[in-house]
Amino acid sequence: MIRLLASVTGPEEAAIVIEGGADFVDLKDPRLGALGAATPAVLDATLRAVAGRRPVSAVAGDLPMEPDIVVREVTARLAADYVKIGLFPASREARSAVIEALRPLAKRTRLIAVFFADGDPDFALLPLLAEAGFAGAMIDTLGKSSGRLTASLSPAKLGEFVRRTRELGLMSGLAGSLEPPDVARLAVLKPDYLGFRGALTEGPRDGPVTLAAVQAIRALIPVEGSAGGEPTAVGAGDSIFVRDFDLALEIGAYGHERGRKQLVRFSVEAEIDPIAPDARSIGGVYSYDVIIDAIRALAESGHTDLVETLALELARTILADARVREVTVRVEKLELGPRSVGVEITRRREAGDAPRA
Ligand SMILES: O=C[C@H](O)COP(=O)(O)O
What we know:
Blueprint (H helix, E strand, L loop, with lengths): L2 E6 L2 H10 L3 E4 L12 H11 L5 E4 L7 H9 L6 E5 L5 H11 L7 E7 L9 H6 L4 E5 L8 H4 L2 H13 L3 E5 L4 H8 L5 E4 L14 H10 L17 E12 L12 E11 L15 H12 L7 H13 L4 E10 L7 E8 L9
Parallel strand pairs: 1-2, 1-8, 2-3, 3-4, 4-5, 5-6, 6-7, 7-8
Antiparallel strand pairs: 9-10, 10-11, 11-12
Helix pairs in contact: 1-2, 1-9, 3-4, 10-11
The site of glyceraldehyde-3-phosphate (G3H) has 16 residues, from strand 1 and strand 8.
C-alpha cells in the first residue's frame, strides 16, 4: 500500500491533513528551506493534537553535515515517531560520519534519511543506513523552485532506489514538488509513501494547506486492491497510444552492436477500460505518461540483445496495470539499412488473470 505523507506547519494543518486522509503527518517549517525544522515546542503541540491518530515525523532542519550539530537537532526531536535527516551536499566521508553519529539515536526513534535528487544524492550510502539502524530513506528535492523530482532523476532511477531500499529492509519514500499527474507515474514504482507540501497548499509552498487539495491528492493514490483488481470484462474498451517514440539505446546480438547506442522506435497501443464519462482529472484515467516512463526505463536498463525481449518486457509492464486489457507493442531498429526492422506483438490479459503485484 502506498501511503500519503503530508507536510504541515503545526497542529492546525495536522488536523486538516488527517481529515483529508494523510497517513503520515510530517512537521516542518517550509519558510526555512526544503527540510526547515519546526521548533520542539511546535512538535510537542502537534503531537498532543494528533494524539496518536497518525505517526508524526519531524524534520531536523537544513543542516551542515557536521555530526555534533545534526545529533543535537535530532535529539531535540526524539519525541516524534520519525525524524527525517537530510543528507545535504558534502563528501561521502562527511555524510557517513553523520550517519555513524546517529547510530545510537536510531535505537530511540525511527530515523529517515533524505537524499536530494538535485543535491548530489549518493545512493552508495544506503547499506550504511540500513546497518546503522535507520528505518527508511526517501528522496526529495532541495531547490523547491527548480523543478519536480523527475526533472532530476528518471523514473527508472527512482524505481531502482525503491528496489534497493526494499532489499535492505528500509522504508522508501518519494517527494519533491510533486504534482497530481506525478502520482500515477510514481505509484507504478510502489514506494512505501509519497510526500507532498506544495501540492497541498493554496498558492506558494509556505501558504496554507487546504482540505480540498489534500483530498484531491488522496484520491489519486491507489488504495490497496485497486491496482490489483480484475479488469472490467464488459463492453468495448477505449484506446491509448504512444506512437513513434525514438530513443537511443544499446541493442543487438552482433559484436558491432555492442558498446554503442542506436536509434530504436517504440509504438504502443493499448486497449483500456472505457474512460469514465465524468473523467475530468488525471486521477480518473490511465495516463500515456506511464507508458512513456516504461519505455524510458527500458532504454536505461542496459544492453539487450533482441527487440523481441524489449517488446515482451514492455508489454508485461503495461499489462501490470489492471485497467489495461490488451497491448500492442512495436519495436523498430532504425539504423540497419532498411527504413526499419523490428517486431510487433500483441498480448492480452486472459479472463481471470490478475495483473502483477
Ligand atoms: O517531505 C515532503 C516534502 O515536504 C515535499 O514538499 P514539496 O511537495 O513542496 O516538494
